[in-house]
Design goal:
238 residues; alpha+beta; two-stranded antiparallel sheet
């Protein structure tokens, strides 16, 4: 079972003191701090992706190198698995600050932050879906699995295809062929979490040929890139 505690979450809180009535002033040591208004501010889903990946891959250095080399040969390895974990986290709204809770415990010097944990039901779904993911053996199985989790079905045009990882520029995509209203809505959103400095995984799924690619999945992640940057995507093999 995955851990419920992670280091990918930023949180804040307020502290109330009653030093005079609690006797702290006369003792010379403050022990009355009472933590209130705990709240999660943000969740770094990419960092969380790395943390969860590390729980599924052997920690023994020799075993880890062996397994990663084999998985790289078979289906693209770490890059594919982290992309799929990231999609699983997104589908389960692990980015939602309301899915997390800040736990407080008592210490000798007043209240302390114990840990920050994700909702147990959400964690259970993430755990079970990641287990299935790591049982799949090909890039095609893995990509279609997370697509089905997100949309509930696989497009007919994707049912019998395979994928490969390629690097492209945004200019290689013909945006005129896409849903213009969806593109407009995407551009009006705050996509800083998908900027190049915050998101380094493949950005989606495309098909077609260079200078005429069609986006199958990943509008937000692709649109968030700068015009001159090159990024990885999963391309339907011709």
């Amino acid at each position: 079972m995955l851990s419920q505690k992670y280091n990918s979450v930023r949180y804040d809180y307020d502290t109330e003191f009653s030093c005079e009535s609690s006797g702290c002033d006369s003792e010379g040591i403050c022990r009355c701090g009472h933590i209130t208004n705990t709240r999660v501010i943000s969740v770094d889903v990419c960092r969380l992706t790395d943390e969860i990946y590390d729980q599924f891959v052997p920690q023994d250095l020799k075993s880890r190198k062996r397994d990663m080399k084999i998985s790289q040969i078979l289906y693209g390895g770490e890059t594919v698995d982290k992309y799929c974990i990231n999609r699983i986290l997104s589908n389960n709204r692990a980015w939602d600050v309301n899915a997390w809770e800040v736990n407080v415990c008592g210490g000798y010097y007043g209240d302390e932050i114990d840990d920050v944990v994700i909702d147990s039901q959400i964690l259970e779904k993430i755990n079970s879906q990641c287990k299935v993911l790591f049982e799949l053996k090909t890039i095609s199985e893995k990509i279609k699995y997370v697509l089905n989790l997100e949309y509930g079905y696989i497009l007919d045009e994707l049912k019998d295809v395979d994928f490969e990882i390629v690097s492209i520029y945004k200019s290689d995509i013909i945006f005129k062929k896409l849903n213009q209203n969806h593109i407009y809505n995407c551009k009006s959103e705050d996509l800083e979490h998908y900027s190049e400095k915050n998101y380094t995984l493949p950005r989606g799924i495309i098909r077609g040929h260079q200078d005429d690619y069609k986006i199958i999945d990943g509008f937000h992640r692709i649109i968030a890139t700068s015009d001159r940057s090159k990024f990885e995507v999963f391309k339907v093999k011709n």
